[in-house]
Design goal:
The structure is a single chain. The protein folds into two domains: 230 residues, Malonyl-Coenzyme A Acyl Carrier Protein, domain 2, CATH 3.40.366.10; 67 residues, Alpha-Beta Plaits. The mean pLDDT is 95. Helix content is 47%, strand content 15%. It contains 13 helices and ten strands. The protein is of the alpha/beta class. α4 packs antiparallel against α6 and α6 runs antiparallel to α9.
Length: 314
């Protein structure tokens, strides 16, 4: 088996029913969700499996739910496969899961942190003021320039997710985001469409949330860890000596450099196997769009997880 890299998903990977089949097959998965329920005083199984109150897509619930499913899945793998990844990475929220996997954050602390993170992000900008849009096309290198042309001190738009060379996400003031979409269409640079989100995540408008997060994280321990992680904010490889809480604070109001993160991983280990740990298949798709020959494994349902366990056991 080649070197292994663990990737942890962020918001957008959640679906009602996620983890249910796996929970029925693996006791440690079920126990992890119970642990999450106790930490947050919510019924995590009900939230993920049934979502009767339609809360799963509300960011303060989305974030801990995805983290809980990711860590539950990780524990299933750890119990059955003796594999140590050469490094880990997580997309936005997923960076918290990655830190838990390294032992840098305690699971219960991470759950409370991401729930607070979601609440702070929602508080930062009044509903209706901000917006986000997805861009798909072959002129991604021109989009940051268009955002700069449009932006003013009072009305900003910026690229906040570099997901793959042809897939970006814009965020900022609603009017500026919509104007950027119009410009992209007018100049025939691809397609840009507003996303159904409640806040302009990862834009500089999120700075109030970053300030709140700084205070919250001051009360949480960042443990010494022995592994390596590629951070969203700079796409650099970090060890316990260089990774700080400030990295997580900056992340809230900074772009997710995921394409650059994948490039760094590929530079370090071009033949590694990338394992997406948690719900969905988003990160596998982005990896293959960025590097056509990327070798990816998933864990999003029981059959896929079983195949991944078999592959990693060889």
């Amino acid at each position: 088996m080649s070197d292994i890299v663990f990737m942890f998903p962020g918001q957008g990977s959640q679906t009602v029913g996620m983890g249910k089949e796996i929970s029925e097959q693996f006791q440690e998965f079920k126990e992890t969700l119970c642990e999450a329920s106790d930490a947050l005083s919510i019924n995590m199984e009900q939230l993920c499996f049934e979502d009767p109150e339609a809360k799963l897509n509300l960011t303060e619930f989305t974030q801990p739910a995805i983290l809980a499913i990711s860590i539950a899945t990780l524990r299933v793998l750890q119990k059955r496969v003796g594999v140590n990844p050469i490094l880990v990475a997580g997309h936005s929220l997923g960076e918290y899961s990655a830190l838990v996997s390294l032992g840098a954050l305690n699971f219960s602390d991470a759950l409370r942190a991401v729930r607070f993170r979601g609440q702070a992000m929602q508080r930062a900008v009044p509903v209706g003021v901000g917006a986000m849009a997805a861009y798909i096309g072959s002129s991604g290198d021109l989009i940051p320039g268009i955002c700069k042309e449009i932006s003013t001190l009072e009305n900003t738009v910026e690229v906040v997710n570099f997901n793959s060379p042809g897939q970006l996400v814009l965020s900022g003031h609603k009017s500026a985001v919509l104007k950027a979409c119009e410009e992209i269409s007018t100049r025939k640079l691809g397609r840009a469409k507003e996303l159904p989100v409640s806040a302009p995540f990862h834009s500089t408008l999120m700075q109030p949330a970053a300030n709140e997060m700084s205070s919250f994280l001051a009360e949480i321990n960042l443990n010494t860890f022995s592994g390596k992680i590629v951070a969203n904010v700079d796409a650099n490889l970090h060890t316990t000596q260089s990774y700080t809480k400030e990295t997580l604070v900056k992340q809230i109001a900074s772009a997710v450099l995921w394409t650059q993160t994948l490039a760094k991983i590929n530079e370090i280990s071009p033949t590694s196997t990338w394992v997406e740990i948690g719900p969905g298949k988003v990160l596998q798709g982005l990896a293959k769009k960025t590097f056509e020959k990327a070798n990816c494994l998933g864990t999003h349902d029981f059959s896929t997880l079983k195949l991944t366990i078999e592959a990693l056991s060889k």
